[in-house]
Design brief:
single chain, two-stranded antiparallel sheet, globular
Length: 127
Amino acid sequence: MAKTGGLFSGERFPRLAGLDSAGVDGAHISPWSSHQLNSVPNGICLCKQCHWGFDNGLLKLAFDSTASAYVLSIPKGIKAVAKVANFDLQPFLNNSGKVPSNRLPKNRSLWPSPAYLDELNAIPLVE
């Protein structure tokens, strides 16, 4: 059976007999709506909760070139908005920090593109 785990959480949600789909999605880094770019380096495998959080800016993925590692964080603006709304960020905070390398494809050419992440992260989502 293939690995079917989310990059951020590491949890496995494979498709089970009798279910329509797996519990993970292929998420675009550069949005499909503006880039129409379907390529593995423009995608990450995420559980549905993390996909929602990533698409809405609750989760920020960046590449630290010095450490050659991906780092997941929650932007300060999101923390402030969540506090006002009494929104529990704990499920996302649990995944913050360096992403373990064993969650990434063995073939480094299939890793999420640092350039696409830099472009995405340059867009302010919450002031």
